[in-house]
Write a structure and sequence with these properties.
Elements (H helix, E strand, L loop, with lengths): L2 E5 L5 H16 L5 H11 L2 H9 L3 E8 L2 E9 L12 E9 L8 H15 L4 E7 L3 H9 L3 E10 L2 E11 L2
Parallel strand pairs: 4-5
Antiparallel strand pairs: 1-2, 2-3, 3-4, 5-7, 6-7
Helix pairs in contact: 1-3
Amino acid sequence: MTIKIIKCKRDDLHILQDISIETFNDTFKGQNSSENMKAYLEKAFNFKQLEKELSNISSQFFFIYFNNEVAGYLKVNTNDAQSEEMGNESLEIERIYLKSKFQKHGFGKYLLNKAMEIAIEHNKKKIWLGVWEKNENAIAFYKRMGFVQTGSHSFYMGDEEQTDYIMIKKLK
């Protein structure tokens, strides 16, 4: 069993786009209208948007590979790339996306550990994330990993306003 975490490069944009659409769709299509899913996927994961995010020096993407197959990815943000104003002592985990067949096998923990490693390298005091209030599996995972819900914010899926819990983990 070989697991590798490798930083995404510009040449990886098509893979990043494909896995973004696949994982988001698999996770949320059953709980959202097809119109809102389509609108969100086209806005969030179009090639130009992902290229812009990938070229932001305050954001980083990492693929996780299992036996040379991309299993998912991690996106982290610092400074002004964070989706909420959380200060310079924070690192945001914006995405931990895993393909369905790789969920519940410990890959999320590898990606979370990578985020913590980056936060520590950059002298951050906390890591945080937003997670949809209806994503019970993810919420349970983050709680097991030491995150605490501290608030919430709005997330728009197409024209529907949804609530994301803000969860924080303080670093030692």
